[in-house]
Structures are given as C-alpha cells and as structure tokens.
Amino acid sequence: MTEASQQRVEMWESGLSLKFIFMLTRDDRTVEDAQIHLETAISLGLRHIGFKDVGLPVDVLRTLNKRIRETGATSYLEVVSLDRDSEIKSARTAVDLGVDVLLGGTRVDDVLPVLEGSALKYYPFPGRITGHPSVLEGTFGDIVASARKLAAHHGVAGLDLLAYRSSLPDIPGLIKAVTNAAGKPVIVAGSIADKTRIEALYRAGASGFTIGTAALDGTYPASDRDLKSQLSKIVQDVADLTGEGSVAERATRKES
Questions:
Q1: What CATH number is associated with residue 70?
Q2: Which CA distances in Å does 199 have to 147, 188, 196, 234?
C-alpha cells in the first residue's frame, strides 16, 4: 500500500457508524508480536483496538493499553476465561489496566461489583459459552432470553455476541433478535473474515464487530496479505456498506 493510501485511511475509522474493532489476537489469544501489529494499526489511524486476557503477561497488556489510549483510540479487553475466579480476576485486571471497554464473560453478578466506580463499559456474552476458542451454544430462544436478561442490568452497556461461533442456521436472524431484545449496542465477535458477514451483521442492527485472526493471517479478501492492506480494506468495506463513502470520496471531503 502506498504512503498516500495510508494517509487517506488515517483517522477515518473514527467517523464510521459501524465500529470496526481490530483485535491483536489469533484463536482467542493475544499474539506475541502484538506491539508490532499495534503500531501498524495506529499508523492507519484505527480508533478501536483490543486484546484478550490471555496470551501475554499483564505488564505487556498494560503497555499495549497505554499505547492505544495515548493515541486517543478506545481500548478493549475481551475475557475468554471460563471459570468464575478467572473471570473475576480478568475484570479486576481490566480495571487495573484502565481499559475503556470490557468485552465478554458471562458472570454479570460477579463482575459488576468489581467494575463499580470505574468508567469502564461492560459488554458481556449472551448465551452459553464453552471451549477455547470460545463457542456460543444454546437454542435461539435461550440466547435471546439471555441477551434480554443481561441487558436489563444497569451496569451493562451492551452485549458481545459470538454469533458466527454458533451452529444455529440463521445467524443474521439471531443478531437481529439479540439487538432487538437487548435495546443496547451489540458487538459481533469471532469468525468474521469477509465483507459478506460484515454486511449481514450491519443489516441485522449490530453496532460493531471485531476482526483479529483474518487480518493477521492475511485471509481477508484484499489487494494484498500484509496487515496494512488487510486493515485498509476492512475500513473501506465498512465505509461502503454504511454509505459513508469510499476511501477516495472521504479523502476528497477531508481535503476540501
């Protein structure tokens, strides 16, 4: 990607109505070279960047979070711990690190007291979560009922839905039902690797989505497999889907 193209991407993602959250993760673990990839994302002006609570030591996660926030971007920590004690520990870590948003986890009654008094926004997982990488289980009705119950908590800002980690036949229908039941923003996370799925979740009413593995592995359909090309294409696709203009059009408006 040319230097001019990189400059065109810079800061635009902050203006998109559908949030693209770049996760410094592969297979639900923060990657060892996360700091290198973070600098690539920063160079493109991405405004939503996250990592998992596993894969790197806490002191390295602290460095990542500090770097994300000093650029003015929003930082996200996604919990993949399966047991109660680990989930509470991860929530405490999120508060200690000072991340902006805590994604994931299911034990709202245990986590909310940990978050009390902080400015952190909390987006737990609806449904039953198993395994690692995490999988969403349960019937359509069970997941929607879980979403409604979780969103009813005052301290829950939104939901983190592992829609494409479910074996249910109608994923767009699930996303739409969860967003309607929640009445709060829903972020769709996991196994999103092309524009088709981004469009589906957008049409279904999701407020944002995460991509990590696809971009890091260079498998998102783009002009090249390098991370800059991958991230730039995702931003472009979101802009096209939301009607907020192509990269070139947005550049023209910015420069005029």
A1: 3.20.20.70
A2: 22, 12, 5, 11
5 vs 141: which has the higher pLDDT: 141
Q: Name the residue range of residue 85's domain.
A: 3-255
Give residues with Cβ within 8 angstroms of 90, minimum separation 6: 53, 77, 79, 81, 105
Prediction pTM value: 0.90
- The number of distinct structural domains making up the chain is 1
Type of residue found at 92:
R
Type of residue at 76: Y
Q: Locate 35 and state its tokens.
A: 């700091």
Total number of residues shown for the chain = 256
Closest among 2, 28, 8, 19 to 158, alpha carbons compared: 19
- Which tens digit of pLDDT belongs to each residue from 88-122? 999 999 999 999 999 999 999 999 999 999 999 99
Q: What angle do CA 54, 116, 162 make, to 5 degrees?
A: 40
